[in-house]
Amino acid sequence: MKKTHHGWSAYLCSGDSLREVGTLEKLGLSANDAAGLAAGLKEAEASLDSSALALFSSFEGTVMLMHQASKDAGSGHEGHAP
Question: How many CB atoms lie within 10 A of CB 6?
Answer without folding.
Answer: 11
